[in-house]
Design goal:
heterodimer, A: 316 residues, alpha/beta, eight-stranded parallel sheet, 16 strands, globular, B: 284 residues, seven-stranded mixed sheet, 6 helices, 19% helix
Chain lengths: 316, 284
Amino acid sequence: MADLTSRLGSLTLPNPVLTASGCAASGQELHQFFDVATIGAVVTKSIMMRPRSGRPTPRMAETPSGMLNSIGLQGPGIDAFLEKDLPWLAEHGARVVVSIAGGHTDEYVALARRLYDNPAVSMIEVNISCPNVESRGQVFACDPAASGRVIGAVRRAADPKVPVFAKLSPDVTDITVIARACAEAGADGLSLINTLLGLAIDTDTMAPVLGGVTGGLSGPAIRPVAVRCVWQVHQVLPHLPILGMGGIRTGLDALQFIAAGASAVSVGTAVFGDPTAPARVLAELDQALDERGFAAVADAVGVAHKSVAEPVKEPA
Amino acid sequence: MPPVQEVGEIFAVQHIGEYYQFTVVAPGVAASFTPGQFVAVAVGGDNTSMLLRRAFALYGATPTGDFAGTIQFVVAEHGPGTQWLVRRRAGERLDLVGPLGRPFQLPKRTVPAVLVGGGYGTAPLIPLAQQLIETGSDVEFVVGAATASRLFGELAAKRVVGAVTVTTDDGSAGTHGRVTDVLPAAIQRTKAHVVYACGPMAMLRAVGDVARAHSVSAQVAVEESMACGVGVCMTCVLPVVDDDGQSRFVRSCVDGPVFDASRVRWDDVGSLPPDLVGADAMGA
């Protein structure tokens, strides 16, 4: 049994497997299939200030080894979240990473304030990269200055005891530029990666499949992109904790992210096909670490970089 | 009881018209099944590129007796997922999650009911009919489809109920026309207080309209495209009027699949009506 204790900034988790934002609602539904207290943490759907209807249907298209979604951040808003969902998670012993999203820096700040000094909140993940928000011009995650402004403002407004992670979009020329901007603005860590923007066309109707036209691509199809992003960011910011995600379906998938530099991982789209996926991935990862002789998951974080920096020499 | 995930052996696959009727050993799903609920089936096998489950209304479940612990559901071949599924054979295993969704609500007192099935939408109505008859209700069936080969459950309906009216759009079986052409007469004949229906969206809407015109309630089971089936993905939403009079996008998988037809805003399916709760936040 490897030591699975994982650290994300000042937060210590009993193990490194979390849910992914938007793939676990607020935990209640998945608790029917596994105990939400047994995984590292539940990452909530992105919470916004006001109730939000989301986009018209169709909202989903299955694609090879993945899916496109254009939910449009449907949610009840922060009041209902604080009243119902967060207390439920606390009562059931789950550690909670609250994902927040907004249309303006002020909205992110207001959300961070509403979460201040709440013992049920373990961490804040700032969704600055969701390609689904209606205001396409304001995808903060594609602009280093805008990303830094939001993250700096959230860090200043949020409870100092609670780590603030920025969730980045892979749809940028150089993700390390955005990562540095967030780090310099005070991010305690990064969540890598959000979905990739995609589009599918129905060849019977000759029109886009999704009501929102474009959608976010997730699932194993994006895993190599995600592992590459984790690798690149860990290379330039080796001391900044990374929560890795993107197409993790098995314990070995999770181990790839950890070896690339992630301290913990989120299991997202896999949940739609297998509601026990987070618990299963955790068990598989535990076994995979044992089989490879790791005494602790922390020892595996970023190890793949060593193989490249110091290539193993052939024996003389 | 909460839904379970279990791997079950296929006991039989019967080819009926254009459909495939599966009987699968799944005691966990069978144990708490109520008519109207569905099962979500993984397709494609290990390491498949098809990540999402396919949802099927449960046709029956046998918790006890000779076929104890089996469930039945009906599959129509549509895309790659169902093409894989209909090629499975007895002895192979399926990964199932169920029973899922809110079932049909039985009337509080014994009243006559008309059950309307379109295509393989008749499947979940057969166990409902059994339940209604056990509680003493008079039940009539209307079973329709585009053409004769797409009818399902006509014999089963006759066995359970006796009074069955068949319609086909092309006249290849039964009355030439749609289920809603014969529904008013069935409601009047039976003095029905409630209509139950399952089938394509346009049919459900039309059934709801007929029911309202006759001042009877209609419970309809929708078949909306789903990703997870368990309530976490928010893809299968419909605009529905809530108890507080406000409309919201609600999940077909956990808030349905059975809805009061008068609560569904059929005109607005596939759009974003501006008076929906939270629609004002979408432009922000």
